[in-house]
Amino acid sequence: MPKGGNFLTRHMGRVIFRVFDWRVEGEFPNRGKAIVALVPHSSNIDFFLTIAFIWATGMKASFLIKHTVFWYPLGNIIRALGGIPVDRSQQNGLINDVTRQFHEKSKLILGITPSGTRRPVNEWKDGFARIAAAAKVPVVPAVLNYRTRTIRLAPLIEGVTEVRQIMNRVRAEAASGMPRLA
């Protein structure tokens, strides 16, 4: 697994989880490359939980996030945390670019929210599954449950190259999650 952070960030991540009474169930797989599918994405709080998790585990990870939050000075902070801007208003070859990065890099953990937004949606975007299938990297469903205050790391989905099958397996795991209610 790619390593990042330091003693201070690991300590801060653990403190954030303790203070807000959140916990992680399951173990993050010891893989150098993976896509983390965060489901359900329902609040800006998800971002802070993700950063706390990355810090607490001492992991180096990147994540896709909408380009509109990359204004000065917030954009510099988000980039330093691992953020990669995505302009969803136009087709820009993102899936090919990210797939290429998985092929070129020896280690890459990438977080993606399949819903693509915090609002409830009927259909998820399949980009994460298309990247996983094309790059032949596993998917780790990270299931948020605001009722129990847990992030459950579901079983690794690997060796699956059918986009629809990846989508179905992540959706099945997501059924145990609970979005943040206003």
- Tell me the overall shape: globular
* Strand proportion: 15-25%
Overall strand count: 7
How many angstroms separate the termini?
35 Å
Q: What is the total number of structural domains?
A: 1
Rounded Rg? 15 Å
On the 0 to 100 scale, the average pLDDT is: 92
Strand arrangement in the largest pleated sheet: 1-7-6-2-5-3-4
Helix content: 25-40%
> Element order, helices and strands?
HEEHEHEHEHEEH
Largest sheet: 7 strands, mixed
Oligomer: single chain
The number of distinct helices, counting runs of at least 4 residues, comes to 6
Structural class: alpha/beta
pLDDT < 50 stretches: none
3D structure, described in words:
This protein is α/β, with parallel strands linked by helices. The chain has 6 helices and 7 strands; from the N terminus they run H-E-E-H-E-H-E-H-E-H-E-E-H. The protein has a 7-stranded mixed sheet with strand order 1-7-6-2-5-3-4. A hairpin with a 4-residue loop joins strand 6 and strand 7. Helix 4 packs parallel to helix 5 and helix 5 packs across helix 6. The longest helix has 13 residues. The relative contact order is 0.21.
